[in-house]
Amino acid sequence: MAFLKPPRDKYVKAGQTAVFPCKAINHSSVTNITWLKDGKPLRLERNRIIQRRQRLVVRRSSKSDTGVYTCRITVEDETIQAKARLMLKGRMLPWSTWSSCSASCGSGRMTKSRTCTGVPPNRKTCHGKFVI
Questions:
Q1: Which of 10, 11, 25, 67 could lock 38 by a disulfide, CB 3.0 to 4.6 Å apart?
Q2: Residues 95 and 84 in one domain
Q3: Where would I find the Ig-like domain in this sequence (predicted)?
Q4: Is residue 9 scored above 90 in pLDDT?
């Protein structure tokens, strides 16, 4: 058994919908699809986090929805699983002020930084430099 459509990482803005497919190749027999979030059984929420056909739909995504989702398909005695992350897109906050110089004389260094509001804060959820 193998995946036809495994779930893939999703990057959405807060409030948007994320859809994770979970479909096996050519299995006409009844399949059992279960979802985990961060390794624990996923609690579905009426009209917000739902399993429809061979997809998981997360509506009105928020920080509490971010994490690793695992799709587990079982057919008879065979099981396959695939993982995908849900991340929230963010934006870069304004630059900080310049830091103090790292040396009192000579070739010291000054830096400034900024923060990404994405979850998790990284180059996939925010674009641009973090430190200059």
A1: 67
A2: no
A3: 1-81
A4: yes
